[in-house]
Amino acid sequence: MTDIHVTSGKAGPTGGSRHLLEVKDLYVEFHTRDGVARVINGVSYHLDPGETLAVLGESGSGKSVTAQAIMGILDMPPAKIPSGQILYKGENLLAMSEEKRRQVRGKEISMIFQDALSALNPVFPVGWQISETLRTRAGMSRKEGLKRVVELMDLVKIPAAKARVRDYPHQFSGGMRQRVMIAMSLAMEPKVLIADEPTTALDVTVQAQIMDLLGDLRRDMNMGLILITHDLGVVADVADRIAVMYAGRIVEHADVRNVYKHPAHPYTEGLLDSIPRLDSKGTELATIKGLPPNLMRPPTGCAFHPRCKYAKAVCTTETPRSLDLGHGRTSACHFAKEMLDGTLR
Amino acid sequence: MAHSADNVAGSRPAGEPLLRVENLVKHFPITQGILFKKKVGAVKAVDGVSFELHRGETLGIVGESGCGKSTLAKLLMRLETPTAGRAMLKGKDIFKVSGSELRRMRRNIQMVMQDPYTSLNPRMTVGDIIGEPYEIHTEVAPKGDRQRRVQELLELVGLNPEHINRYPHQFSGGQRQRIGIARALALKPEIIVCDEPVSALDVSIQAQVINLLEKLQGELDLSYIFIAHDLSVVRHISDRVGVMYLGKMVEVGSDAEIYERPTHPYTQALLSAVPVPDPDARTHRDVIRLVGDVPSPANPPSGCRFRTRCWKAQERCSVEEPLLIRRGVEPHPSACHFAELRQVVA
């Protein structure tokens, strides 16, 4: 992390209302052989203790890259962070030395990944893998580590934890593997937990168990939880606030209830209309026409305009700024107010 | 399209099913030893499944991983030989036919695969992929006519017919799934088995493909067997729904019967676990949380297979296997001794 030019945005130094974690006007680009892909274009969000923030988006929207930037696990190069700040307890992670950053990673901010089977090492017992952090970071002995592992496995409700410490990942079911991953990420009792599609690979009944577990842990440990997902149902079930991403920007950011009742961005509205419902048969599904943009050659103006059913002339030329709609709600649409009034045609 | 005319001509009186599956069983042997393989057990992937499929109808099959829904799809495609049971397609058992009759039968049941990234050969052009079925079934399209037919199919599934010489990597996931659908339509089948056709796609693209499948069904009078784990998608597209658990069908009914009046505890738990895109549902929804995981199909529980995770389980459930029959006042069959209506979807 060498070339970071911090652009001071509109906000000055953090005042009295300091958040646990704050991403400020973050930009990330990937330098590839074919050119520069600007995957994150000015993303800002914040997280407080005990809160669940859902980051919703489709593949390629930049939701995982933002998380990787927070964790400091982006491959640089090809990735580059030309500007932006990630403040943890007021300190800019991007300006830290790698040595200092290591102290934050895992201990303060921790992450669980989508595919637990490929995130676990197949040739070591799970107990050994969970205790690895404890041995290297907390300086515990093997014996102490193992004792704590059993506690952690109990915490994530793995039955017969003591007997299963020496089992290998392949001996666990998908849901249990994800519990092992959660135990591992909780080993150092982090303040922020980033869950990147934690239940996408799981069956619905198991998904419900894991989401309940994450919710309980968040409450009991007063953690801030960032839930990255594409599932509008999961978001409605657990999140407090939601940030909807499209083409590397947050297009809408609001309290969950507001978003589902009255979306303030055409993309959010399109997403909500295009999902089939469990509680009614419905007629033909509304679709969002076209495809997500190629980030090597993003459209001019608003990145969503080629797919937007409300697009006007101004949308093709001017990139909409994030519009403050009050109550901590923002929308990056020129016509956000009209959308809320229901007068947009 | 030329398609629809043929299909309508072969139309049968309502009531008689197009496909009738009776007591279908598939056990995969578990063997031990290298040279002299000894059978030590069996994975009971599909264990006595029966259903009917009518013309122009969509039968949704839902269930969690390992319940046997994909094995069922492979059996219907005759990619696997069943251990027992039969499947009557227009009065003929699809597992008994051979030779030219088998080839004709295969034309009639086609499949759309789950993963549009791995189910298309990256070294073949789109034209070759969609036209390949004609190499085997030469009687469907004479050689000179193939390119025109492939272009017609591309147009039918909403792709540009001029892209016939492009390769799969030049298309997005949703477009690739359209190519897979065009390939399945090439031989003018009456039945299409869709195995998780939209689960690999993004939400906004998923809706496009679902609408396409529905449009094609209307135009070509197709019957779908729609296998998926997403219960909302299945409800949207299906006329009837079958719920599977560990190789057994536990409940079958119309979409309204299964979703609004479920009587099997597993169906109720499954529906209750689906997150609903409505934040207000958090507070007033009936929550049923199953404990544990699905048992191994190699060693399923005795009696009712769901009893190990069921909150209603009693002595009787471990000895007597519940049959899939009508119980009580509900008009649809349910395989539970204690079947009882419980509404879980608000």
From TrEMBL, chain A:
It comes from the Bacteria. It is found in: Cell membrane. Its main location: membrane. Residues 21-272 form the ABC transporter domain. One of its GO terms (molecular function) is ATP hydrolysis activity. Pfam families: ABC_tran, oligo_HPY. The keyword Transport applies. One of its GO terms (biological process) is peptide transport. Belongs to the ABC transporter superfamily. This is ABC transporter ATP-binding protein.
From TrEMBL, chain B:
One of its GO terms (molecular function) is ATP binding. Pfam families: ABC_tran, oligo_HPY. Residues 19-271 form the ABC transporter domain. GO terms for biological process: peptide transport; transmembrane transport. InterPro entries: AAA+_ATPase, ABC_transp_ATP-bind, ABC_transporter-like_ATP-bd, ABC_transporter-like_CS, Oligopep_ABC_C, P-loop_NTPase. The keyword Cell cycle does not apply. Keywords: ATP-binding, Nucleotide-binding, Transport. NCBIfam families: oligo_HPY (TIGR01727), PRK11308.1 (NF008453). Belongs to the ABC transporter superfamily. This is ABC transporter ATP-binding protein. It comes from Catellatospora methionotrophica.
